[in-house]
């Protein structure tokens, strides 16, 4: 935990000091010292605004989104006892993508909205996708396998609606695909404040459920004999993980592989107990996405890569490695 916190502080510090604007990290340090001591800043008013209203909010948002996706991935893997489960398993990504596409097509301008319609639609779509999957899974008899199959069916259905809407409005395809590749473009602290309550509540619930996930790992019958109700635990964990995923997707678009890469790295380094995996995944996810976003916004500066490209470049080979390592245990 101490190592993870040090890594988080280091990632936040480096990403705040270094950016595409070329302010110079020593001058940014001078600005931070001036803010803390009341001294004179080496930055102009405009440059200081870049640090505090653009760069630092983006770093915080990257940390929140990464933490939400990673802790949700760890929770899904614990609930389904499947090492390849990730936050988009139950239709959250498909629901968010469909809703965002419909907003782009029907309301391309956000003028007059108190809160931007795209994040709200993505949030509602992600929760709606998970809810529809859950209803279908329960109506078909429940069970992990049925729920996973329901998620695949719901994702296919929602993706078909999204594709149909895109084909009717081809002039919006670029905007839609830009959102689907993931990004953390911020307008100050608005996006941070929008997602912070949901991610905070979800993270607290999932961290408190770490011991229960350890018990579920030994089987439902054994868990029931210890006085735990597996069904209720699963519902609680799924709701919390889906809420965190929906909040992250609403402001960042679709950023894949975070929920697979981070929990597995944590298991390799710190063991498989969910009392350890869940909180460390929370911190590790924040570190991972802050670093990925730093690469995305600086490697081809002044242009910017979609952050989903960076995470996919890292996560796809890791996913294949995990699949090979667990080929006898994945069902």
UniProtKB/TrEMBL annotation:
It is a multi-pass membrane protein. Keywords: Cell membrane, Membrane, Transmembrane, Transmembrane helix, Transport. It is found in: Cell membrane. Pfam families: FecCD (PF01032). InterPro entries: ABC_BtuC-like (IPR037294), ABC_transptr_permease_BtuC (IPR000522). The keyword Cell membrane applies. The chain crosses the membrane at residues 54-76, 88-107, 113-137, 144-165, 235-262, 274-292, 304-323. PANTHER family: ABC TRANSPORTER PERMEASE PROTEIN MJ0876-RELATED, FERRIC ENTEROBACTIN TRANSPORT SYSTEM PERMEASE PROTEIN. Belongs to the binding-protein-dependent transport system permease family. FecCD subfamily. This is Iron ABC transporter permease.
């Amino acid at each position: 935990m101490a190592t993870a916190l040090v890594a988080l502080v280091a990632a936040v510090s480096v990403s705040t000091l270094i950016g595409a604007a070329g302010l110079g990290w020593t001058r940014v340090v001078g600005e931070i010292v001036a803010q803390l001591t009341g001294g004179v800043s080496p930055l102009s008013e405009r440059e200081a605004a870049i640090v505090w209203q653009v760069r630092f909010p983006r770093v915080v948002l990257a940390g929140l989104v990464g933490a939400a996706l990673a802790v949700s991935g760890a929770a899904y893997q614990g609930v389904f006892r499947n090492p390849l489960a990730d936050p988009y398993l139950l239709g959250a990504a498909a629901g968010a993508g469909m809703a965002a596409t419909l907003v782009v097509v029907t309301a391309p301008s956000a003028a007059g909205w108190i809160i931007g319609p795209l994040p709200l639609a993505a949030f509602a779509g992600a929760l709606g996708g998970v809810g529809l999957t859950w209803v279908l899974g329960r109506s078909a008899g429940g069970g992990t396998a049925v729920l996973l199959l329901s998620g695949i069916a719901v994702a296919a259905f929602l993706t078909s609606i999204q594709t149909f809407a895109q084909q009717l409005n081809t002039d919006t395809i670029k905007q839609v695909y830009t959102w689907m590749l993931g990004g953390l473009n911020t307008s100050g602290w608005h996006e941070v404040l929008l997602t912070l309550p949901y991610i905070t509540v979800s993270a607290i619930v999932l961290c408190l459920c770490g011991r229960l996930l350890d018990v579920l790992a030994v089987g439902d019958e054994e868990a029931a004999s210890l006085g735990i109700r597996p069904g209720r635990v699963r519902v609680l964990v799924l709701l919390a993980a889906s809420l965190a995923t929906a909040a992250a997707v609403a402001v960042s678009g679709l950023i894949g592989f975070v929920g697979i890469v981070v929990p597995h790295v944590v298991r390799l380094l710190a063991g498989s107990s969910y009392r350890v995996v869940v909180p460390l995944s929370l911190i590790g996810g924040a570190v991972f996405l802050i670093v990925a976003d730093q690469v995305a916004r600086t490697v081809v500066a002044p242009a910017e890569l979609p952050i989903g490209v960076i995470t996919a470049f890292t996560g796809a080979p890791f996913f294949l490695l995990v699949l090979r390592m667990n080929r006898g245990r994945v069902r």
